[in-house]
Amino acid sequence: MSEENKPENEELKIKFEENGKEYVVNNMPDNAKELYILYQEERQNRDNFILNANKSIDKLNRILTSYEADMRNILESTEEKKIEVSK
Questions:
Q1: Pairing mode, if any, of strands 2-3 and 22-24?
Q2: Are 77 and 85 in contact (CB under 8 A)?
Q3: Distance (Å, rounded) from C-alpha 28 to C-alpha 11?
Q4: What is the reported pLDDT for 47?
Q5: Do the beta carbons of residue 23 and residue 30 sit within 8 Å?
Q6: What is the CB-side half-sphere exposure of residue 23 using CA atoms within 13 A?
Q7: Phi-psi category of 12—alpha, beta or left, where left has phi over 0 and alpha has psi -120 to 50?
Q8: Which pLDDT score is estimated for 79?
Q9: How big is the chain by its Cα radius of gyration, in Å?
Q10: CA 74, 76, 77, 82: dihedral to nearest 10 degrees?
Q11: Cβ burial, residue 12 (10 Å; 0-12/13-18/19+)
């Protein structure tokens, strides 16, 4: 289902397929308008969920990268100490 992004003075329209019929929201029966409002709310919830999930993934990736760098520093400095002791 797709929506047309129109300026505020133009009517909201919705269509269910790329080349499908367009429906004007104001011309819909009341029960369809109610569903449209619910659809818009859930669509916004989905978009917010995806946005927040992407932010969380980025944050987790940064944390993992930091942990990897810390582990690498620990392990490589331990190896250097072993080499110095064995000389």
A1: unpaired
A2: no
A3: 12
A4: 98
A5: no
A6: 13
A7: beta
A8: 73
A9: 27
A10: 120
A11: middle
Structure tokens at 59: 């944050």
Cα angle, residue 45 at apex, residues 39 and 46 outer, rounded to 5°? 90
Residue ranges of the domains in the chain?
A: 2-86
- Spatial distance between the Cα atoms of 64 and 77, rounded to a whole number of angstroms: 20
Q: Which long-range contacts (CB under 8 A, 24 or more apart) does 36-44 make?
A: 39/1
SS3 sequence of 2-52: EECCCCCCCCCEEECCCCCCEEEHHHCCHHHHHHHHHHHHHHHHHHHHHHH
Can you tell me whether residue 56 is helix, strand or coil? Answer: helix
Those residues of the chain that have pLDDT short of 70 are 1-9, 83-87
